[in-house]
Specification:
The complex is a heterodimer of chains A (331) and B (337).
Chain A (H helix, E strand, L loop, with lengths): L3 E14 L2 E14 L3 E5 L6 H9 L7 E10 L2 E2 L5 H7 L4 E4 L13 H12 L4 H14 L17 H13 L5 E5 L7 H18 L2 E6 L2 H7 L2 E6 L2 E7 H6 L4 H8 L39 H5 L5 E4 L2 E3 L16
Helix pairs in contact in A: 3-4, 3-5, 4-5, 5-6
Chain B lengths: L1 H27 L5 H6 L5 H11 L5 H13 L13 H36 L4 H14 L3 H15 L22 H7 L3 H38 L2 H8 L4 H38 L5 H10 L3 H29 L1 H5 L4
Classes of the chains: A alpha/beta (331), B mainly alpha (337).
Bound molecules: adenosine-5'-triphosphate, iron/sulfur cluster and magnesium ion.
The site of magnesium ion (MG) has 3 residues of chain A, from helix 1.
């Protein structure tokens, strides 16, 4: 058993909006081990970004608030410590890269300025030393062009900017790197390069990665373990091999079917029917029930729990759970 | 940057030509015989002839125009009809007085406006934010002359704290060198005069700076709020950067770009406001100089005064544009290329 770097337990994160409370994260528990790459997968709006921002302490507050649960990082509960203590950790021990490389760098400061800043926030080093470190890190992410430090973000392509973002995140050799859809905005060849780069960094530096994506194909390539989220909850969680060989939850199966396959000559791609539920009106039973092809009566009245279907494989579905005592109400 | 500056300077040429045509036409827009209108009904033909020659009205229009431009380029702004002095020389102290007033007013407006805006955005929806924005709202809707009179009544009359008129205590011995009194006082090491000059500046500068301050404060606040929502601010926070630097480094620099436009515009409008302020506070500036010239139908002075104000306006805009390019690296490489 590897040591855990990150352990989220029963996290509840709500947004208090004018239209009511949105339970964007509703009882999420997950772990990331040392050197492990964990994939967090799910459709748009299921709460992936919000979960990751909660780890960083970057949830806009108000309207957002962690109302219950804990986020243990190296034995420290990040939900309990002050902003000041949190600032010491983020950027240094936990770093994050974002989906939008085009807008994630400040347009008015040079690449060098922005890279050096990370070092100078957390370490007592002089400018020229920090510059050296920045150049070295850029080389690690595959940019060795002369003068890059004096360039402004608008002079770089999207792929280059994402490399810079990765370099920035890796500057201080963090224990945990959170990557929120780092390749979604990039075209396919660049995407593959960035994934390769992240895999290498994971191997070389032993950095644990929480990799967020809605693309199961990317997950298959990158991740040791996979957590599938739906409507603010985890619906399935297991290692890569089991998930792809034997997906249990109907939602995961639906996601698998929507991966385009080369031999498949059908005109249209499969997609799960229906839409993610409106966060203001969650279905009362299983949240996936309105879209599920295996839906049973009990699914509409009672919420399944996340239980082990086999060793190291969790799923939140009545299909493979003993239905204890028929639900409280009968319809 | 150099090539950008050169480009901007070249773009100035048509603007300057247009401006000179307009000011040139000021005299020619007078209905009937300008010379007769200028001197009035009781003038003798000899007097009218003198005016005509003085203004070069006896030659064809295009020659007059070229003469006019040539004179300007040589620094000759004509002669005042009243004092018979060279306008270029005569206007200097007035110009210095206006510039000093406008600069101080703008410094007040920018300093307080920008900082109020920053703090309001930073502490959005706090009592500070509400108070500051209420003040800004009142400031925007305050007529200058009313504010000026209230200031005079309260600070000068009731409290007897600040002088209400002029640039200096008239009893003071003082040699003007640059005609920027505060600077002159420093040059001469006359601490007492410096103090007095600053005290005289406060009320008119506040009257003149209040509206721009309020507008700048609102603009800064909304611009800051917008930038604070952007991805790169989230990145800055994700680095572990402290909130002070997030606000004053990453947010402010970006938020300042639209504020800069407003500052430039307000500085231009301030010249208009200066005429009013100068009248209320008996401030011997260009506004007063032109105002008096209008009353006296002193056309050469009106003409040159307008030309100078317009030139200042154009130069301010040029400076704002260059500041843009300096703050925002994207501009020099952008569409302008
Ligand atoms: N500032 C906010 N105010 C109110 N609700 C919010 C806010 N931010 C996020 N949410 C809610 O949280 C839910 C989860 O959003 P999140 O951004 O985590 O989705 P995601 O899984 O990352 O989706 P995507 O794939 O589109 O990035 C959304 O349904 C949204 O309604
Ligand atoms: S619990 Fe029922 S509705 Fe929900 S996924 Fe399982 S079968 Fe489908
Ligand atoms: Mg997201």
């Amino acid at each position: 058993m590897t040591q855990t770097v990150l352990e989220i337990a029963e996290l509840q994160l709500h947004f208090f909006t004018d239209k009511g409370v949105v339970k964007a994260v509703d009882g999420v528990s997950l772990e990331v081990g040392r050197g492990e790459v964990v994939g967090l997968v799910g459709e748009s709006g299921c709460g992936k970004s919000v979960t990751s921002l909660a780890i960083m302490g970057l949830i806009p507050q108000p309207p957002g608030k962690v109302v219950a649960g804990s986020i243990q990082f190296e034995g420290v509960d990040l939900t309990k410590i002050s902003q000041k203590e949190l600032r010491k950790i983020r950027g240094d021990q936990v770093a994050m890269i974002f989906q939008e490389p085009m807008t994630s760098l400040n347009p008015l400061f040079t690449i060098g300025n922005q890279l050096i800043e990370v070092v100078r926030i957390h370490r007592k080093v002089n400018k020229s030393e920090a510059r050296k470190q920045a150049l070295e890190m850029l080389r690690q992410v595959g940019i060795s062009r002369e003068g890059i430090l004096d360039d402004y973000p608008h002079q770089l392509s999207g792929g280059m900017r994402q490399r810079v973002m990765i370099a920035m995140a890796m500057m201080l050799n963090p224990k945990l790197l959170i990557a929120d859809e780092p390749t979604t905005a990039l075209d396919v060849t660049i995407q593959a390069q960035i994934l390769d780069l992240m895999k290498n960094l994971n191997k070389e530096f032993g950095t644990s990665i929480l990799f967020i994506t809605h693309d199961l194909g990317v997950v298959a390539e990158m991740c040791d373990r996979i957590v599938v989220m739906y409507a603010g909850q985890i619906v399935e969680q297991t290692d890569r091999f089991r998930l792809f060989r034997n997906p249990k939850h109907p939602y995961t199966q639906g996601l698998m079917n929507s991966i385009p396959k080369l031999e498949d000559k059908r005109e249209r791609l499969y997609s799960i029917p229906g839409q993610v539920p409106n966060p203001h009106q969650m279905p009362s039973g299983c949240r996936f029930a309105p879209r599920c092809e295996y839906v049973m009566d009990i699914c509409r009245v009672s919420s399944p729990e996340l239980l082990a279907v086999e060793e190291g494989h969790l799923s939140r579905c009545f299909l493979h759970q003993e239905v204890k005592e028929v639900a409280t109400t009968s319809t | 940057m150099i090539s950008y500056i050169i480009r901007r300077l070249i773009m100035l040429i048509p603007v300057l030509i247009g401006m000179s045509i307009i000011t040139f036409s000021v005299v020619h827009a007078i209905p009937g015989d300008p010379a007769r209108t200028i001197v009035g009904d009781k003038a003798t033909p000899a007097q009218i002839q003198e005016i005509r020659e003085n203004l070069g009205l006896d030659k064809p229009a295009y020659i007059q125009y070229f003469t006019y431009v040539k004179d300007i380029l040589r620094g000759d702004l004509g002669t005042s009809l009243i004092t018979k002095q060279e306008i270029a020389k005569e206007i200097k102290p007035f110009l210095a007085a206006t510039t000093e007033l406008a600069v101080v007013a703008m410094l007040i407006a920018v300093f307080f406006g920008v900082n109020l805006g920053i703090l309001s955005a930073w502490k959005q929806n706090s009592w500070f934010d509400y108070t500051a924005m209420l003040i800004a709202l009142i400031g925007v809707s305050m007529p200058i002359f009313w504010l000026g009179l209230m200031e005079q009544w309260f600070f000068a009359q009731e409290l007897d704290l600040l002088p209400s008129n002029g640039r200096l205590d008239p009893r003071m011995e003082f040699d003007a060198i640059t005609n920027f009194y505060s600077i002159d006082a420093i040059i001469q090491g006359n601490w007492y005069a410096f103090q007095d000059a600053i005290l005289h500046l406060i009320l008119p500068a506040v009257a003149l700076g209040t509206i721009p301050m309020a507008i700048i404060a609102r603009m800064t606040r909304s611009s800051m709020l917008e930038v604070m929502r952007s991805d790169y601010i989230r990145t800055a926070r994700a680095k572990g950067l402290g909130e002070f630097w997030v606000v004053y480094k990453h947010t402010l620099k970006n938020a300042f770009i639209p504020v800069l436009t407003v500052v430039g515009l307000q500085l231009g409008l301030l010249l208009g406001g200066a005429v009013l302020t100068e009248t209320i506070f008996s401030w011997p500036g260009v506004g007063r100089y032109i105002f008096d010239a209008i009353n006296a139908r002193n056309y050469p002075v009106i003409q040159s005064g307008i030309l100078i104000l317009a030139t200042i306006f154009v130069v301010i805009n040029l400076i704002v544009d260059l500041l843009y390019a300096w703050v925002d690296p994207r501009i020099q490489y952008g569409k302008g290329d």
